[in-house]
Amino acid sequence: MTTFGFSLNHHIELPDDVFRLLREQIYKRSGIWFHDSSKYLLQKRLSPRARELNFDSFQKYFYFLQYDPRADAEFDQIFDLVTTNETYFFREPAQLQAFIEEVIPDVLSRKSVKKVRIWSAGCSSGEEPYSIAMLLDDAGWYEHAAFEIFASDINQLVLQKARKGTYRENAFRATDGKLRAKYFTRQDDNSWRVNDEVRNRVSFGRLNLYDEARVFLLGHLDIVFCRNVIIYFDDASKKVVVNNFYNRLVDGGYLLLGHSESLISLSAQFKLRHLKNDMVYQK
What we know:
The protein is of the alpha/beta class. The protein folds into 2 domains: about 1-80, Chemotaxis Receptor Methyltransferase Cher, domain 1 (Orthogonal Bundle); about 95-165 and about 195-280, Vaccinia Virus protein VP39 (Rossmann fold, 3-Layer(aba) Sandwich), CATH 3.40.50.150. The chain contains 11 helices and 12 strands. The protein has helices at about 15-30, 40-50, 60-65, 70-80, 95-110, 125-140, 155-165, 175-185, 195-200, 210-215, 235-250; strands at about 1-5, 5, 115-120, 145-155, 165, 185, 190-195, 200-205, 220-225, 250-255, 270-275, 280. The strands form 3 sheets. It has a 7-stranded mixed sheet with strand order 8-4-3-9-10-12-11. Strands 5-7-6 form a 3-stranded antiparallel sheet. It has a two-stranded antiparallel ribbon with strand order 1-2. The longest helix has 17 residues, at about 95-110.
């Protein structure tokens, strides 16, 4: 059986010209750039959505995105479908150790009011901000200061999962057994749920890192985690996002990127700090 001239088992063909128009609109709205080699990825991930809206071609779907009043909401659906969300608890442990043992003491040493504001930017399904909260608790830092952890992502589906706080085994590939026993409760279906004490220490919200006006509303921050996120932006968009981070950080504030990411050729505003455990950027 076929519908609209294509098999239900196959994707709608994404013509090169429509691919270029579509990626340009995604780029303008999010700063995320899809190279020519990513055409099939967009075709694969968006074909079911186009079919769901009863479009038999990407040309018609793109026309809808250009002229329909529901286009803004539809682009939110697109962001949910095309963003990658691979992560796990306690990723890049050397950096997390530097955060707990070196960054936090330095931040607190310069504060009269012992309150630290942390942003997990591009938090995906929540493993990173929950890891931050667990490590702060395990190290006893909550006894010495107040911590505000805000976590954001452009993808609404992963934020729903983050708020729920329930995870499968693959999220624990770098988790010490003692920490899992301390901060998680095993569920009847063999998943693991973050304990309420930890969940209540993190607030989640949808935010486009490319949206300077919305990022501005976060106010001043002491530490920004943005790990393995800016690799999905082109250089021009990376500069916008990094500049947004710079403007939100207090003097002496820290930016923690993924190990595969660097500010070389992107920003000369930050200093690269060689700490005992890892390298981080500081305003």
